[in-house]
Amino acid sequence: MHTADLSELDRAIAVTGRGDGEYAAALGAGWLIGDALNGGYLLAVIGNAVRASLADAGQPDPFVVSAHFLSAGRPGPATVRARLVRSGGRHSTVAASLVQQEETRAEVERITVLATYGDLARNVPDVRTTALPPELPPVEECLPSSASDEELRRMVPFMDRLDLRLEPESAGWAVGEPSRRGVLQGWLRLADGRPLDPLALLLVVDAMPPTTFDLGLQGWAPTLELTAHVRADPAPGWARVRCESRNFADGYFEEDCEVWDSTGRLVAQSRQLALAPRPA
Amino acid sequence: MHTADLSELDRAIAVTGRGDGEYAAALGAGWLIGDALNGGYLLAVIGNAVRASLADAGQPDPFVVSAHFLSAGRPGPATVRARLVRSGGRHSTVAASLVQQEETRAEVERITVLATYGDLARNVPDVRTTALPPELPPVEECLPSSASDEELRRMVPFMDRLDLRLEPESAGWAVGEPSRRGVLQGWLRLADGRPLDPLALLLVVDAMPPTTFDLGLQGWAPTLELTAHVRADPAPGWARVRCESRNFADGYFEEDCEVWDSTGRLVAQSRQLALAPRPA
Fold first, then answer.
1. Which residues from chain A sit within 8 angstroms of residue B85, using beta carbons?
2. Which of A83, A156, A277, B250 is the most exposed place for a label (fewest CB within 10 A)?
């Protein structure tokens, strides 16, 4: 397949092996939020390198990825270093870091992760208990992110990578009327129509605006750590995403996200610990 | 302070620096569940080594620890290797692994973690939103784990390290009547009266029986990964612990635990991804 045939996500997370567990990537400016690349995008790049490092194991899918965020990623060249920690029967665990060179040529780590991979296709279907997906108005009654004003979209090119439709109550912050539930939820798919898959879910779990917007707090809320569980390969179509923060205290908050596929199956869960936005 | 003055937890998680980020520990048989050491105990040992490795940074407290479980820990000598990944203003991130020698003298990794530490005492008190602690009957109406039969307690010496009082509904599984809510909750303190602190919370978030017991599934449910957030230094006294599984599918389940201190403050949150127990 030629690169030109790939979706924009596939092109943006492509990695080239250099041997010894080292992979080269080119981080795209289209995934910027202000001057920092979206964390979920960086996670998908690392996830793709980890997948490549496990090509011989037949374990292509992230089952659980824990990421500690160290510094903001920038567009341009990056290197992912992956080291196999344990290779088991059903799962393999890899430690990986994404690094970039700063202008001074010094190498700086952006994210460091521990990732346990397996093969989702080998799981035996058997849903015993399940939470319920969020109830949302129909897609056409939700608010497309593409309706945001042009200045915002210029500052946040990342918004144009997704087709996100927030339910009206979750979009009140945009007009100064946050619901103050600490909840943001809506429909989501990739803007270019590429179906979601396990790697794309690593992006999706960190793709929503911060829940602090819904608490009436504008501003950047840096992630300290994010762990994602991928529970199933998503069916094609619109996914439902719900993010909630229940405990905002002493300058920190947790953000729990769930991703449900078009069949109503929970396909991913994540939790992050983030720093409260500082007053501008 | 003499070792004899320390609580049993402090003695059991003690580490001795060997230089170059290497720490020696002696894992205690009192923390066994069957023939494997409790994962939370191992996490507290690693947490103590990470604290020692950051002694000069003035950042003694785990803020978020992500642990991938590789093999079962055994009583006896162990080594923790800690490597500073990033040292920042408010937080430092350390990668650490706990290893043991097998009978063949080969070194085997038990747990590998990424840990971001800071100083909880420097956080400015400011609780903006908070979930509510679980409603529990008074301690004296709950069921002490010390009332379990002697054979069980011989197989699970770990039970005697804790004073755990499950609410009656959460203890139904012990008499063949699981509530099937996927919830276990109760009061908890350390058996020897040592007050909880941030390191002890790493133990507490993995101290409850698996929530699968409450779903009517007996048996060992191995943890693949556990991430803990420590949100505050707990006040002395009984803590309330609530663990819940909402999604049990295809042989995997998540388990979310919350720990609330005696003042009703959320002090820790954890989520793990575990393997469903295999039928005996």
1. 68, 70, 97, 109, 112
2. A83
Q: How confident is the model at residue A6 (pLDDT cuts 50, 70, 90)?
A: confident
Question: How long a stretch of residues is chain B?
Answer: 280
A114–B66 CB contact, under 8 Å? yes
Chain B positions touching A99 (Cβ under 8 A) are none
Q: Which of A3, A84, A80, A73 is nearest to A40 (CA)?
A: A73
Check whether residue A171 and residue A68 sit in a common domain: no
Same domain, A99 and A175: no
Q: Chain A to chain B, count of Cβ pairs less than 8 Å apart?
A: 157
At B3, the pLDDT band (50, 70, 90 cuts) reads low
* 8 Å CB contact of A250 and B124: yes
For A222-273, write each residue's pLDDT tens digit: 999 999 999 999 999 999 999 999 999 999 999 999 999 999 999 999 999 9
Kindly list the distances between the CA atom of residue A215 and the CA atoms of A118, A176, A219, B199, in Å, as whole numbers in the listed order. Answer: 37, 11, 11, 31
User: What residues of A are in contact with residue B254 (Cβ under 8 Å)?
Assistant: 229, 269
- Closest CA of chain A from B48, distance in Å: 19
**Cross-chain Cβ contact A273/B249 below 8 Å:** no
| Alpha-carbon gap, residue A185 to A137, rounded angstroms | 11
Q: Do A231 and B246 lie within an 8 Å CB cutoff?
A: no
According to DSSP, the β-strands at A61-69 and B22-27 are unpaired
Q: Which two tokens stand for residue A210?
A: 């911060």
Q: Please name which of A211, A202, A152, A213 lies closest in space to residue A39, comparing C-alpha atoms.
A: A202
Mean pLDDT of B21-38: 97
Cβ contact (<8 Å) for B215 and A126?
Answer: no
For range B6-31, the mean pLDDT:
97
Joined tokens for residue A166: 């927030």
The domain of A147 spans 139-275
Which pLDDT value is given to residue A4?
59
- Give residue B103's pLDDT: 83
Q: Summarize the confidence of residues B174-190 as an average pLDDT.
A: 96
Q: How far is A55 from chain B (nearest CA, A)?
A: 20
Total number of domains in chain A: 2
Closest by CA position to B199, among listed B90, B76, B63? B63
Classify residue A1: in a domain, yes or no.
no
ipTM of the predicted structure? 0.96
* Residue among A66, A71, A124 whose CB faces B250 most closely: A124
Whether A95 sits inside 8 A of B113 (CB atoms) is no
- Compute the distance between CA of residue B258 and CA of residue B274 in angstroms, rounded to an integer: 17
pLDDT band (50, 70, 90) for residue A280: low
Q: From B86, which residue of chain A is nearest by alpha-carbon distance?
A: A70
B93/B159 same-domain check: no
Tokens matching residue B166: 């499950």
- Residues 6 or more apart in contact with residue A266 via CB below 8 angstroms: A130, A131, A133, A231, A232, A258, A259, A260, B247, B249
The CA distance from B81 to A141, in Å, is: 54
Identify whether residues B80 and B154 lie together within a single domain.
no
Q: Do β-strands B76-87 and A183-190 pair in parallel, antiparallel, or remain unpaired?
A: unpaired
Q: Is A47 contained in some domain? A: yes
